[in-house]
Amino acid sequence: xxxxxxxxPIAAMARVLGVSKAGFYAWLHRPPSARTEAxxxxxxxxxxxxxxxxxxxxxxxxxxxxxxxxxxxGRKRIARLMRDAGLVGASHRHSxxxxxxxxxxARPAPDLVDRNFTATAPNQLWVADITYVPTVVGFLYxxxxxxxxxxxxxxxxxxxxxxxxxxxxLSRFPG
Length: 175
Fold this sequence. Notes:
Layout: H1 10-17, H2 21-29, H3 34-52, H4 59-68, H5 75-85, E1 126-135, E2 138-147, E3 153-159, E4 171-172
Antiparallel strand pairs: 1-2, 2-3, 3-4
């Protein structure tokens, strides 16, 4: 109601919302509850623990750290306060983007080397792979072609997307 009082009168908003005008003004000037103050105090402790962990601790570790210091609080309460404050822990489970999208209806490509990746001379067998490299601005996709005999990179290509080009140009090393 206070956000819209420049547009609508308080009395009209109170009537529409089914609350009394006096109740709104009482709520407006009421001091914060004990729970709200306790949450603010706990949030300061949570921010201290989170910052001392070099922003890696999530709610379970923050909860364990506070419990080790003799402070008993619920893990879900800590998780709620961290979520509301925008505090998140580091996760090693982030897998990254998917580089392979299989078409279940398409026939698989034939295995021309019969899983034998050895070569007796250069330029007989080239193998290729694609991977991604996480960067500050997003993922960078890298495709590499290797000579199986010399294990040297024959060519490579980088892009910030996985869209297919009509003719892919590979950067070729001299020699």
